[in-house]
Structures are given as C-alpha cells and as structure tokens.
Amino acid sequence: MRRIFTASDRVREHARLESSLAIYLPLTVKLFVYHTPEATPTEQLPDCAVVIDVLRATTTIATAFAEGAEAVQAFSDLDQLLAVSEQWPATQRLRAGERGGKQVEGFELGNSPLACTRDRVAGKRLFLSTTNGTRALQRVIDAPVVLTAAQVNRQAVVDYLQAEQPETVWLVGSGWQGTYSLEDTVCAGAIASPLLEQQQLTLGNDEVLGAIALYQQWQTDLFKLFCQASHGERLLRLNLKDDIDYCAQTDVLNVLPWQAERGVLKAK
Ligand code: MLT
User: Fold this and answer.
1) CA nearest neighbour of 94 among 131, 77, 111, 240
2) CA 182 – CA 196 distance, rounded (Å)
3) Ligand 1: does its nearest atom lie under 6 Å from the Cβ of 53?
4) Which residues share a beta bridge with 30?
5) Which end of the chain is more exposed for a tag (fewer CB within 10 A), N or C?
6) What is the mean pLDDT of the chain?
7) What are phi and psi of 172, to 5 degrees?
8) Substitution site in 76, 77, 130 for ligand 1 pocket (most atoms within 8 Å of beta carbon)
9) Where are the strands (E) in the chain, listed by range?
10) What local confidence, expressed as pLDDT, does residue 116 receive?
11) What is the pTM of this model?
12) Residue 87 C-alpha to ligand 1 middle, in angstroms?
C-alpha cells in the first residue's frame, strides 16, 4: 500500500536531513576584520557588524549592562548628545563623555568601566560619546545586526555568532583617530579564533588571520600587550592602570550588547 506523507512527516524528514547534512557541511560565517572605522567599506553592509573598542568604550558598555543599565545611546557628536539627553528624565540619565582619554567637563561620567557601578548605572540610560568607539558604531549603524564586543564579554559574542551563523560578519576595530590599535585587533582575533578552530569560518580578508596570530601570541598576557599599545600608554600617563587591568580580562561578563534601535544599545 502506498504510504501517505503528512505535513508533520515532511517537517520531521526535513529536520533529519538538515541535521545529517550539518555533520558534513558545517555552516560558516564569512568573516572580515577592519582595523578602523576609516578602513571599513562604505558601499555595503554585512549581516552582522561587531564593534570593538577594548580600551575602553565597548568594555564600558558591557560593564554598564552587567550592572543593570537600561540602555546605552551612542553619539559621535557632543552637542547632539546634549540635545537628545536633555529630553530624557534627569533622574534616569547619565551623560558619559570622553575625549583624549579624559572625562568631558560637565558630564557625570567619563569612559571608565570601573565607574559603572550598580548604584550609579542601574536602571539608567547612558548617553555616551567617546573619541573613537562611538564613531565606529556610527559607521555600521545601518547594519541589520550590530553588536559590541570587548575582551570582557568575548564569549557572549562568540556564542551568538556560533548559534546564529550570520552569513557575513564584520569585526570593526575603533583604532585611534584612524590608526590601527593592538587591543582591538587582538580582541578580533579572540573572537575569530574559536570559529576557525571549529571550522565555522570562511576568511573574508587577510586581516582575520593576522588578528588570530596576534591573539595566539598574546592571549596569556593581554595586560602586558595593552600597556605597550599606544592607547594603553596614553591611559597609563593618565594614571588609569586599573582600567587597563580590568579591560584585559577575558570572558568575565556574560552580556551581549546589541543595537535595539538606531544608535541605542540594549542587553540581550
Ligand atoms: C575611544 O573611544 O577612543 C576610547 O574608548 C577612549 C578611552 O576612553 O579610553
């Protein structure tokens, strides 16, 4: 007798085929690393953009969420930040501004992750502008998925990429005023490395392997690397060694900042 396949038979069969194929054909993400916002293409966008500013904007963003911040709204322009934050209830906002590593005058916070304590940030929206990190966010603001990564929340980003497998992913370093930075590249390598090990990665550009090599060389002494980086030296001159020490930790925060609406990050 001829067997009649029901709709649920078909769904089951499809799932069986998919899982058996996955053993032979692991899905991969096509990964690109861009060292600075300036090096990031302007004519196209990836399915997922990951913005990295280890010293210190994306470390501060991850920490603010771990301590209960409601959202982080990012601005490259200070005047625009002031105008928009003015419309937000004063008791529910914090203005966080940094230029040249220093806190912007008149703002409640600078860009130190260590200042993001629960009693200060819980339930609040941070209106944030930094020298390079918020400019990098601006560059990919129209990508369908925008995440932020630092060493402290690296694993949360890797978990997302492995689970969702977006077809194209850009890791965008913030650098320093258009120039390469060691700390953002090593973090890009720390994200790319497990994807390569598990064959979930297609190389989009040569920078990916360069970033992985840097990470493999320095993964056990990131603090030392960060102190030698030009922005690390700048922070040391400003007596911010504890910030560098904090930013050099790997996988200590299980938070995934993502862009919920244009320019507004929330925690997943
Ligand atoms: C930046 O955006 O360039 C940085 O996060 C600078 C800093 O505050 O360390």
Assistant:
1) 111
2) 20
3) yes
4) 168, 202
5) N
6) 93
7) -110, 110
8) 130
9) 29-34, 48-52, 71-74, 93-99, 102-103, 125-129, 145-149, 168-173, 201-203, 257-261, 264-267
10) 98
11) 0.90
12) 26
